[in-house]
Design a protein that fits this description.
Elements (H helix, E strand, L loop, with lengths): L3 E16 L2 E10 L9 E8 L4 H16 L15 H9 L5 E18 L2 E5 L2 E6 L3 E6 L6 E4 L3 E18 L2
Antiparallel strand pairs: 1-2, 1-4, 2-3, 4-5, 4-9, 6-7, 7-8
Length: 172
């Protein structure tokens, strides 16, 4: 069974953004007549600075929006990689276009512990086990667990982040 959800939405905004050393565009969509737990769907389309697989995937999202809005893309679309301002200018012309989005629900769990050394955050948590002496934080993938001595932790909390990832964009 797939957790893919298809909805109708309106493209409302694009703004340049950076995530670490990666640049791109945050795309915003408003769902039409669909019950979601969010009013606005925000998705990051990576666009460089280098020509990588995620940058080509992000460029594909941008080109599908432009195609649905019937806006001509440059002759060499790969030349847009790393040029966020030019992409945002093109996407501004596509504001208000209705699209069919394919969405996947994503989630991320992290563990935060307040210790004598400060606040420590462990991202991508699968489970937190407790015994009399330690908190054992199991992480996703094959990464080693992280141990915190219970006596050293003054406060702890798990944080859960949920969002929708846009995996497909089509004309309705």
């Amino acid at each position: 069974m797939t957790d893919l959800r298809r909805i109708q939405a309106t493209f409302v905004a694009a703004e340049p953004a950076e995530q670490g050393d990666v640049t791109g565009v945050v795309l915003e969509f408003e769902p039409l007549r669909v019950r979601l737990d969010v009013e606005t769907i925000r998705d990051f389309a990576e666009l460089g600075p280098a020509l990588t697989i995620p940058a080509v995937a992000g460029l594909g999202k941008v080109l599908r929006i432009l195609r649905a809005a019937r806006i001509a893309a440059p002759r060499d679309p790969l030349a847009l990689v790393g040029r966020d301002a030019e992409i945002v200018a093109l996407l501004e012309r596509a504001r208000g276009i209705r699209l069919r989005l394919s969405l996947k629900r994503r989630a991320r769990l992290s563990f935060v512990a307040w210790t004598e050394r400060g606040v420590e955050t462990v991202p991508d948590v699968v489970d937190v086990l407790e015994n009399d002496e330690h908190y054992v934080v199991l992480r996703s993938g094959s990464r080693a667990p992280v141990r915190f001595a219970r006596a050293a932790v003054s406060r702890r909390q798990t944080q859960h982040e949920r969002w929708y990832e846009v995996v497909g964009i089509e004309r309705p």
